[in-house]
Amino acid sequence: MFKELIEPFRHPSPELNLRAAKDSEGKKAKAKAKNWTVTLGRIWTYLAKHRGKLALVLVMVVLSSALALLGPYLIGVAIDDYIEGTGGQSWIQFLLLLSAVYILFSFVSWLQNIWMIGIAQETVYRMRTDLFAHLHRLPIPYYGKRQQGEIMSRVTNDIENVSGTLNSSAIQIFSSMLTLVGTISVMLWLSPLLTVLTFTVVPLMALGMRWITRRTGPLFKQRQRNLGDLNGYIEETLSGQRVIKAFSQEARVIQGFTQRNDQIYRSGFWALTISSFIPKLMNGLNNLSFAIIAGIGGILVIKGSITVGVIIMFVEYARQFTRPLNDLANQWNTLLSAIAGAERVFEVLDEDVEAKDEGSSVTLDHVEGAVSFSQVSFAYEAGGATLERISFEAKPGEMIALVGPTGAGKTTLIQLLSRFYEPSSGTIRIDGRDMTSIRRESLRSHMSFVLQDSFLFEGTIRENIRYGRLNATDSEVEAAAKLANAHSFIVRFAEGYDKKLSADGSGISQGQKQLLAIARAILADPSILVLDEATSSIDTITEIKIQEGLQRLMKGRTSFVIAHRLNTIRKADRILVLKDGRLLEQGSHEELLKREGFYSSLYEGQLKGESMGLGS
Amino acid sequence: MGLIFTFLKKYRVAAIVALSMLLFELAVELVQPLMISKIIDEGIMKSDLSVVWLWGGVLTASAVLAFLSGIASSFYASHASMGFGYDLRDKLYEKVQSFTYPVFNRFATSSLITRLTGDVSQVQDLVFMSLRFMTRVPLIVIGSMIMALVVHLKLGLLMVCTVPILLLFITWVIKKSAALFRVVQSRLDSVNGVIQENLTGIRLIRVFVRMSHEVSRFAKASAHLMKGTVSVLRLTETTMPFIFLIGNAGIIAILWFGRRDIAAGSASVGEVVAVVNYSLRTIGALSAISWLVVSFSKGRASAMRIEELFSTDNDAVGHTQAEQKTPLIQGHVEFNHVSFFYPNNGIHVLEGISFTARPGERIAILGATGSGKTSLVQLITRLYEENEGTVRIDGIDARKLDTPNLRDAIGYVPQEVLLFTGSVRDNIAWGNEYATLEQIMEAAKRAQIHETIEQLPQGYDTMLGQRGVNLSGGQKQRISIARALVRNPSILILDDSTSALDVRTEAALLDSLTDLSCTTFLVTQKISSTMSADLILLLDEGRLIEKGKHDDLMSRSPLYRQIYQSQYGEEAQHVQRTY
User: Membrane-spanning residues where (chain A) (predicted)?
Assistant: First the structure.
């Protein structure tokens, strides 16, 4: 029992470097304040759309704060004039006035909340959709550098943070400040002496608040970081569940989880404990000022300098005076985290979008499909080159195969063609036109890609294929599925094309996913088709059938194919052999075999698969 | 909600202490108006300064005491609620990890994540709030009512009358808004779902130029969420104005009757003042309810989502009935008339499969897309269980084996590459946490990735992003093969995990595996990989249509010959006619 009583006080004290914080405070404070004003200013630009309605809310808040002050004053008058004294005017009239004040107060505060919620939620909605739309304008390299979970938490958690604060805190903070100013003025008017006495607790309050917020600020940040860490860990271990189970590593991930949970517990305990001192402090000081007013006020009444009514009013005002302070203190942390959240949101919004299409950029109605690379180089990071001076030409209607060892730069070349990345030097031309002079979206709408990871959306099979061309009819969808050899497995499902696929695409095999991705690309009806290992998980017989279908379909269209199976490659009009980012050889299958270079050794290797696979 | 609060048991001492300190604080607050009425009636009215000093002093002392107990109660309250949250989160994660794979798949990953994070925090907040505020409101209300009745029965009754009306209204709001919050929560889920999907499929969306399509889809989900949020918040925000309205009506009544009673001599000025004071306190306490309503109904919804996980049980097949512990698995695998279908649809994925694999043998599994190859190897890993027939490992029914024990002996390379955040070294060592650097390098060499790793900027200590973005598809595949090899498995399963490798690397890799003593299952599309196998299993629509060595199948199986021709024969183009 004793152990349990003492336990809460035995938590190791938080690691806070207050001195370091103090030293850099001066410099940082300025930068921080500037950041805040910028952030708040940007939130304002969102709110400004509702300027008229906000002004009305503001009027309501002023009105309700005034009414909130009037209430206690009238009660003081009631006690002085009617309860204690004999009363001047009509008692009934006075009560009617009081009722009117109360009713009006309820009505006005109801109205202000209803309006503010509408404004706040509409604002959050716009911020959310803006952020989301912006994500679609960011260049692809942005996504290569960041964890998906991290980006996601900005659209979800951080926006939710802003939402919660705008709903309630905005009004509360404003009305708290108004009430504060109003209360102090009325108190000063009633009795300057008592006001000064009441204010003796203010320095104590300021000191206490400073002590608390200097600790809670870093602690809350620490907790958010720990929480983010835990979220990432959960996401990873849940999406990797198949591996964890098969490797029987449950105990190990549970241990990893406990470690992170521990960190949250440590920072969270102190953040929570210290921040909950705030209302206690306010309450305590409130009670203290209560005692001061009652005691000293009593003496003043006896000395005749004030009336009993003034004491009653003062007690009530003192409460009203500390309440907004209390509210402000309570709101402080949520306000801070909301500003931090908004900052994180704006950070994304400030990221440069995919380099703007130049002013002269054109929209193409038709693309023939001629593609040429001249002296194209590219590096993901400054330094090592991933592609070096690649030059080749593809005529409309040609099938180009890219071969080479893994890591040779085949996928990178495709990424340049899709303009996910821009070449560091050299030019890529489409139909003889510099690719950078064509609007990205226009360019992409004439191309169709089957990417390495065949991503499917949550939805029916039909919806997933139709993603290739949104206005395609059901029969066009089915025709594409037939061409991709997906039709036969689709109709085996009881629901057929209306079979729902879950978000992670479970329920169908990897190869079937690739078939659907191919159907989707076919439906898009492109001038240029790009297949990046699109058939790697598909059996070779089906693969051949798909190719035959594609050959018919691709008459007069250009296609790029990355594959390892040489029988796929063999039929290409031109084969590009890549190794370590360089274009070693190019030509048709026969030409390359004759040359007896890298390609022919690859080919021989595959034909002699027996001996190499057998090994021993 | 009952189940969840059993987690509070461990912290009941701290919780009780926190609550009793709260009581003390409250008591101080409640007697204050009484003391003030004493100062007015006995001190000021009778011009007795000593009474004023005395009660003023008592007021001050009690304020200090209440403050101290408030600080102490903060410690107890956060100790109880943080501990509660910690335990709940830990146990919930353990529970999720204890699910069998089919049960695990019943929940969407994103929904499990929110339950473990957001929902637990929500319930934890509720506990903390309860320990500090939730109890405060009823206590202030009840205390004020009692004190008001003690001070003056008739005037007190006036105040007490308003309370039932308010309570009725508040319960109605809570009920209604809890239901609305559940709706909001599910809409938030779908908004998050769209975001997650878009981030994962960002490249695809770009190349298909579907940005505006996705943005309008998101805007729709987002607008749906906004409407839901607005309607629930507008409901909860009516609480406060309503409470003020009714409460203030009570005050007017007290003033009216109070004045008459003073005139009649049945009440003192101090008594009227005190009752008015208690009314003001009650209204103040109740007005805090409008946001307590929000956190209470949110917490309720979250608690229900958590309890759903706790009450989910694994299907009572196998798994739990481990009777035998096999100290060392030799790698003898036998399928005896095994049939299998996935829980969510009744279509047979595997039907009547029988074969035997002896320790050290290489088994190649070949078949068309969707013929059941992956399902077959998953039965060996016990991610799923067969519906009919038996799978025997070393002659023992796999259902009777201790699953973790069996899995320790398996090296599994799934079709989809799953790497974890951390260095290359961490990722390989993930297969065997006691592996030395030498063993890790040995595995990497066998997986033909050692040289590539050496060329990375920090070699084995190079960090991989969440999705291993810096590496090509083939490089990632080889790391995940190294991860399986470092376990020194008795059974190695490669599920089409060399698809992104060029022919040479693949051949070298398969070659380096031949001197391993483990039983190897190789799901593949390539004849070049099957030629070296001791046994080839040829699957077609879930049935095992042929088994044997390469030469047997070449002579016996037309399908196998077709596959062979599709890869080697010039006549491959003609395959379609005969297939």
Answer: 54-79, 91-111, 170-190, 196-213, 288-315
